[in-house]
Predict the 3D structure of the following.
Amino acid sequence: METLLSDSKKEALEDLHAEKNREIAELRESLNLANQKNSRLENKLEVRTEQRDRAIKYI
């Protein structure tokens, strides 16, 4: 009976680990997408800052 209970607990723990690993993978993907968006916005800001600085020189 103890072995059966231990096997049941082990299976439940493995299921929990699998679920948490899926959640971690989803969070990593979300973070990756957010980082990509952040990089694009930083690049856009840099371009606009350069454009502004060039425009100021002509004023």
